[in-house]
Design brief:
This protein has about 400 residues and is an alpha/beta fold. The chain contains ten helices and 23 strands. The strands form seven sheets. A five-stranded parallel β-sheet has the order 3-2-1-7-19. Strands 9-16-10-11-12 form a five-stranded parallel β-sheet. It starts with a strand and ends with a helix. The C terminus is likely disordered. Its cofactor is FAD. Belongs to the NADH dehydrogenase family.
């Protein structure tokens, strides 16, 4: 019987892991199934563009994995039983169950409201395609002079607020950030960011906590009202609660704790990639939720699974570190902040149109890598033990 590998989620991390596994393991010995609720691989890093009215290229999973041997199962994951090694699914035909020998958990994350009242009822987010499309429709309804507030001054918030302001210069766009504007960037990058924000006419509320969101805007921690017809919530992400409901060892964040090979510390047949996993990067600092973390995590997990199943003595090591932070500021401007391995800003950077082109190249490269798994180097090795013995002997 073939060794059954099930990959849950086809975002950057899950899709990459599945494609890489297909090129590392012999198809006569393995059966790789990707479970995803959407028929497409979605470029999550472009959701701010989608929300601002731009069209995005489709990447149908059936086409992505054509010729690889990877099976695509369109379904929503409702539960995982790591003791029975099964996954509960729901699709158009109803409930079903899928068994696995090795599981790659890549269910990602969604917008987190952090318990702030009114966010779920009144705010929009861009954590996925459905929510980005809802925001797109709402923005299209705003007449000139309409007010938009983006809450959250991280990478997602900066990209969203500048994209919206550039696409709709007729709107009154504002940003509320808990800290200073781009205060994790170096000084030159911060100056450039402020210049772009001023050029686009964005009002910035720095050192501002949001205590409540309603239909007319947001109330700050000190009681001020920031009026907004549309509030966009980008203040962080949270993982799906499925993992916390299992016997997997998880952190307080709900992320599954993994070792240096992306394998669950409690269940050796489970590997975790992307936002759902809590992995240590350089200096023991946890990797942040990002495409820049998820893809190397996927490389590491796929190579570790292949090495263990095929009896290799040494597990390859992926580059689990950072090189830069790429920030688009609309379609014609940006910041490429070079960083240390543990994600601290260096003095060097790129700004302006060149940075915008650099960021676009990175986004296209990431999507190209996911959507062309047949171009991975082929090292298809045979599994060295029967399916029932393989999981038990993993080390």
């Amino acid at each position: 019987m073939k060794h059954r590998i099930v990959v849950l989620g086809a975002g950057y991390a899950g899709a990459t892991a599945a494609g890489r596994l297909a090129r590392r393991l012999h198809p006569d010995d393995t059966e790789i199934t990707v479970v995803n609720a959407d028929a497409d691989f979605v470029e999550r890093v472009r959701m701010h563009q989608l929300a601002a009215g731009q069209g995005l290229k489709r990447h149908e999973l059936s086409q992505v994995y054509a010729g690889t041997g990877v099976r695509v199962r369109l379904a929503r994951v409702t539960a995982v039983d790591v003791d029975r090694r099964t996954v509960a699914l729901v699709d158009g035909n109803g409930a079903d169950e899928l068994a696995y020998d090795t599981l790659v958990y890549a269910l990602g994350s969604a917008a987190a409201d952090h318990g702030v009242a009114g966010v779920a009822e009144h705010a929009y987010d861009i954590a996925g395609r459905p929510s980005a499309l809802r925001l797109r429709d709402r923005l299209a309804q705003l007449a000139a002079g309409g007010t938009v507030l983006v809450v959250g001054g991280g990478l997602t918030g900066l990209e969203a607020v500048t994209e919206i302001a550039e696409a709709r210069p007729d709107l009154d766009v504002a940003l509320a950030t808990r800290g200073g504007l781009g205060d994790w960037l170096n000084e030159k990058a911060q100056r450039h960011l402020r210049g772009v924000v001023e050029r686009l006419g964005i009002t910035v509320h720095e050192h501002t906590d949001i205590a409540r969101v309603d239909a007319t805007g947001a109330v700050t921690g000190d009681g001020r009202m920031i009026p907004a017809q549309v509030t966009v919530w980008t203040a962080g992400f949270a993982v799906h609660p499925i993992a916390a409901a299992t016997t997997l060892t998880v952190a307080a964040t709900g992320q599954i704790i993994v070792d240096s090979t992306m394998r669950s510390v409690s269940h050796p047949e489970v590997y975790v990639v992307g936002d759902a996993g809590l992995a240590d990067g350089p200096g023991g600092k946890p990797l942040r939720m990002s495409c820049a973390s998820g893809v190397p995590m996927a490389w590491q997990a796929a190579d570790a699974i292949a090495a263990r199943l095929t009896g290799q003595k040494k597990i390859p090591k992926a580059p689990l570190r950072y090189f830069n932070q790429c920030i688009s500021l609309g379609r014609r401007d940006g910041i490429i902040q070079y960083v240390t391995a543990d994600d601290r800003a260096k003095p060097s950077l790129i700004t302006g149109k060149l940075a915008a082109r650099y960021k676009e190249f990175v986004c296209k490269g990431a999507a190209w890598g996911v959507s062309h798994p047949v171009l991975y180097p082929v090292r298809r090795r045979r599994i060295v033990a029967p399916r029932t013995e393989t999981v038990a002997t993993m080390s």
